[in-house]
Amino acid sequence: MQGYNFAYLDEQTKRMIRRAVLKAVAIPGHQVPFASREMPLPYGWGTGGIQLTAALIGPDDVLKVIDQGADDTTNAVSIRSFFARVAGVRTTTRTTEASLIQTRHRIPETPLRADQIIIYQVPMPDPLYRLEPSRPVARRLHAMVDYGAMHVKLYEDITRFGRVAVSYDHPVMVNQRYLMSPSPIPAFDNPKLHRSPALQLFGAGREKRIYAVPPFTSVVSLDFEDHEFNPQRAPQTCALCGSTTSYLDEMVIDDQGGRMFACSDTDFCEQQRQAQHDHAA
Amino acid sequence: MITLLEAHALHHRFGRTAALDDVSLTLRRHEILAIVGESGSGKTTLLNALSGRLTPQRGDILYDDGGGPRALASCGEVVLRKLQRARWGYIAQDPRSALRLDISAGGNIGERLMASGARHYGDIRAIATHWLEAVEIDPARLDDLPRYFSGGMLQRLQIAATLVTAPELVFMDEPTGGLDVSVQARILDLIRSLVRRLGLAVVLVTHDIGVARLLADRLIVMRHGRIVESGLTDQVLDDPHDEYTQLLVASVLPA
Ligand SMILES: Nc1ncnc2c1ncn2[C@@H]1O[C@H](COP(=O)(O)OP(=O)(O)OP(=O)(O)O)[C@@H](O)[C@H]1O
Ligand SMILES: [Mg+2]
């Protein structure tokens, strides 16, 4: 692309972001401020994730972009074609082929490897945000490991709803030190954060924060001893590939109100079907 | 008796006002010390300094957690917050400022437990229930929001939420100040019986000599940021030496 630096951002900005990433990796779960740049996409489109991807991507990388599990939404397609254009990199929809995965709202079902980096788009990086609206006070609470209020919220959820009721963005403790928002992934995906071999990076563009979970780091979902964290999955089978273990989306399939359940992770679903097809042939 | 808390030559100014002017005191384990004096005499400033909520401009505060006296200023903010969250308590005049009104009574009582690591939901509820009973609130209100509690009930709830971690030292700033006179007496009785039963050390700020007489072992009288008299409560109140103390006692005690 003419008129742009490789991967859109100028080298100085990339270096600034990489320094923030290094710091984030050194302090797992700690939110590091960075000078978020304007991107040619609106904030809701994951500019935090895009800036991380732009700062880290190299000519040999293979990029996958996930939006709520799917590779083919407008958002995913736009981000993928953006990087194909401004960095000339290969893109893929297959988890196993990707070296860099930018995602919104899901972690792939296929386990990640040590040679992969996953970048999460984050709208609200601070899990204390709803409990403590003042930024400086929230920062002090993190510094003092003062997370009683978060447990009080879980206590109230159990008291009112009978369970730890957060089905998305369920808060986690990283490396037994920092309380962290896993971004709005389903609680079902939280266990995949724990001791993942892949480097996990989180970027919040509007809130100007980057944080990280280095490979093989402990990530524990908040819960109580007698009300253990117990993520829910629809008890159905995927109508397309028959999976009984993957996270399912419920979709309306006709205007008679007909519904079906199918894998949210479209690549996983395709691979399952491909395998069944190969097996039958 | 062992000294729990010690203040040496505290000074603190707000602009031209000397809120603390060379204040020194000691508090022993299990002792109840009242700070009395007219409005603006520096009582709250002193309490805030002793409890680590305000760093005085000059002077030292030493706390002995059993391992020898240690200056608050040298123990660092993390350690201080830990003390404040569990081994110390602070009961404010206005319970609304200390409680979370959109969280159930049980959640309010559980907060300090959870902040100190309690992770068993059933146990937390059992302890919260016990504490509601201890402060004479119907345990059936465990899951109710305190938003609709009366002032007296809110103060009871604040007391329960503070004492639940079995602190050894509790700071109180006019704990009955905002209540109706009829409610005040019952809360004072409650505080008195809990404090004795639990063996708490208390620093109590009040401008009500009657409250000091009822609760305190020892008394200090403040005026313009200075201690003008101190001693055993009965001695000071029955035989005040300082002129100001004489006025204070005379104006409040029934004839
Ligand atoms: N944050 C502040 N800024 C400026 N002046 C202050 C501040 N806090 C207290 N003061 C002043 O310091 C002096 C002591 O105040 P303090 O609140 O300690 O008195 P008090 O004995 O608790 O009074 P009261 O009985 O009215 O609560 C007063 O003159 C007060 O106006
Ligand atoms: Mg005061």
Approximate shape of chain A = globular
Radius of gyration of chain A: 19 Å
CATH architecture of chain B: 3-Layer(aba) Sandwich
CATH top level assignment of chain B = Alpha Beta
Largest contact between protein chains? Answer: A-B, 18 and 22 residues
Percent helix range of chain A = 25-40%
Low-confidence stretches of chain A: none
- First-last Cα distance of chain B: 36 Å
The secondary-structure class of chain A comes to alpha/beta
Bound molecules: adenosine-5'-triphosphate, magnesium ion
Mean pLDDT level of chain B = 94
**CATH superfamily caption of chain B:** P-loop containing nucleotide triphosphate hydrolases
Strand content of chain B: 25-35%
Give the overall average pLDDT of chain A: 93
Give a short synopsis of this structure.
The complex is a heterodimer of chains A (281) and B (255). Chain A is α/β, with parallel strands linked by helices and 281 residues long.
What does the model show?
The complex is a heterodimer of chains A (281) and B (255). Chain A is α/β, with parallel strands linked by helices. In chain A, the strands form 3 sheets. In chain A, strands 1-9-8-5-4-2-3 form a 7-stranded mixed β-sheet. Chain A has a 3-stranded antiparallel β-sheet with strand order 7-6-10. In chain A, strands 11-12 form a two-stranded antiparallel ribbon. Chain A has helices at residues 11-26, 47-56, 74-87, 135-143, 148-161, 190-193, 266-280; strands at residues 32-33, 62-67, 90-91, 100-104, 117-121, 172-174, 178-180, 199-204, 209-213, 219-221, 248-252, 259-263. Chain B contains 10 helices and 10 strands. The longest helix of chain B has 18 residues, at 181-198. Chain B starts with a strand and ends with a helix. At the A-B interface, helix 5 of A face helix 2, helix 4 and helix 5 of B. The complex binds adenosine-5'-triphosphate and magnesium ion. Adenosine-5'-triphosphate binds next to strand 2 and helix 1 of chain B.
